[in-house]
Amino acid sequence: MLAIPRNKPVIFLGICLLLSLLLAGCASVAAPAAPVEQPAQAPAEASAAEEPAADSSASVSAEYNKIIEDSKNEKDGLLVYSIMSEKNWAPVLEGFKAKYPWIEVSTADLGAYEVFERYYTESAGKARTGDMIITAAPDGWVKFAQKGEVQPYVSVEDANIPELGKIDKGVYAVSTDPMVFVWNKALLPEPPKTMAELVSMIEAEPDKFAGKLVSYDAAGEGFGYGLNWYYTKAKGDEGWKTLEVIGSTKPTILTSGGKMIDAVLSGEAVLGYFVSNITVQPRLAEAGQLLDYAFVPDAQLVVVRGMAVTKNATSPNSAKLLLDYILSSEGQLAFSKGGLTAYRADVADQAPLHLAQVSKAVGGDQNLIFSRPEADIADQAKHDEFIARWQKALQLTQ
Fold it and tell me: According to DSSP H, which parts of 86-221 are helical?
């Protein structure tokens, strides 16, 4: 505290004057009479971008906490209609359970179209139905979205998902799975490396492959329909000629990848083409002495496996949490451990199989053919025309 001498008023007045000047100077620094001039436009744009971002983050956090809390009140569990086996699901459900222990998840391994058909039937009858659908029937997804059966949920992981993984509003990609050659090593020690080489081998030794090739059904199964549609779209006449040569062998056409693996292992087939890699990976450990697989550089089909929360979900909040978990880096790694192919960029160096590895193996992205929903594939007239031509090429019609 400043001591002021009583017998020196002149000094006192001088000190008061000095303090007044100092206080006035400080006030002018702390609160300038006019605002500091800013560069034109730039600060205004930055402020406009920054301010909503903070509000948006707080809003998302509060909203997401509500989803989590509301999921605790969904007592009927979470029902998922998918096209993946228990082995594919196991690592994902383990991680999800650790994160949300109150959610009981049930998964059904159904056909690519069957997931939709069951949902439509149950919804029409006001019965319990799938809270989430995961399938790879591109035409089925187009129709499902057009019917308004998708909850337009924007995932909290949306910003981390490449455009390839954003199929439609509320529909995201689970994985990007390559289709492969699968063969019996004892019966076919030197397998084809490309579709072109397969054609040459068939033409050179037709008896060797007669009745011994296996693949997906395009007529009765949405998964196979998408594969053959996009293959012939990418390859044009060359693709159709390849299918005609394959058709000369009278191939076995199935709707299940697991059954294709069984056929190859038993010797009923020597080679499968366009076989889903997710059915191969879980079988390699036990059948590796007899079973082998390879990518197909001149026709590397990649299935974009879609998922969405359904409009009539009984447990929509739990379904949203599972969707977000699958899209997260942790979920992507979990499904890749189950045999699926991750596609998030930030897990490329950690996933057992990543889309980047597939791309590199076949010579680059330009050699990838994606089976992904588009309007044309759901056009019924085009579908019927395509199936008729496909059946003729594979000699499946009389």
Answer: 86-99, 114-124, 138-146, 195-204, 206-209
Phi, psi of 73 (to 5 degrees): -95, 0
How many CB atoms lie under 10 A from the CB of residue 7? 6
Q: Would you state the structure tokens that stand for residue 285, as one six-digit string?
A: 């450990």
Query: Chain-centre distance of CA 45, in angstroms?
Result: 35
* Superfamily (CATH) of domain 66-176+304-354: Periplasmic binding protein-like II (3.40.190.10)
Distances in Å between the alpha carbon of 124 and those of 84, 119, 128, 312? 25, 8, 10, 10
pLDDT digits (tens, 9 = 90+) for 327-336: 999 999 999 9
CB 324 within 8 A of CB 317: no
Query: Given this structure, which CATH class describes domain 177-302+379-393?
Result: alpha beta
3-state secondary structure at position 116: helix
- 242: tokens are 């390849």
Q: Which tens digit of pLDDT belongs to each residue from 234-282?
A: 999 999 999 999 999 999 999 989 999 999 999 999 999 999 999 998 8
Residue 307's pLDDT is what? 98
Please spell the DSSP secondary structure of 307-356, one letter per residue. Answer: EEEBTT-SSHHHHHHHHHHHHSHHHHHHHHHTT--B--GGGTTTSSSBHH
Q: CA 62 to CA 45: how far, in whole Å?
A: 27
Q: Three-class SS of residue 56?
A: helix
**Residue 396 CB partners (closer than 8 Å, separation 6+):** 219, 247, 253, 390
* Cβ-contact 358, 190 below 8 angstroms: no
Q: Which residues of the chain have pLDDT under 70?
A: 1-60, 398
Beta bridge mates, 183: 271, 292
Instruction: Evaluate whether 340 touches 174 at the Cβ level (below 8 Å).
Output: yes
The two domains 66-176+304-354 and 177-302+379-393 share their CATH topology (first three levels equal): yes
Place of tokens 């969707």: 323
Could you state, in order of their start, the residue ranges of all structural domains in the chain? 66-176+304-354, 177-302+379-393
Q: What is the pTM of this model?
A: 0.83
Find out whether 230 and 236 touch, Cβ atoms under 8 Å.
no
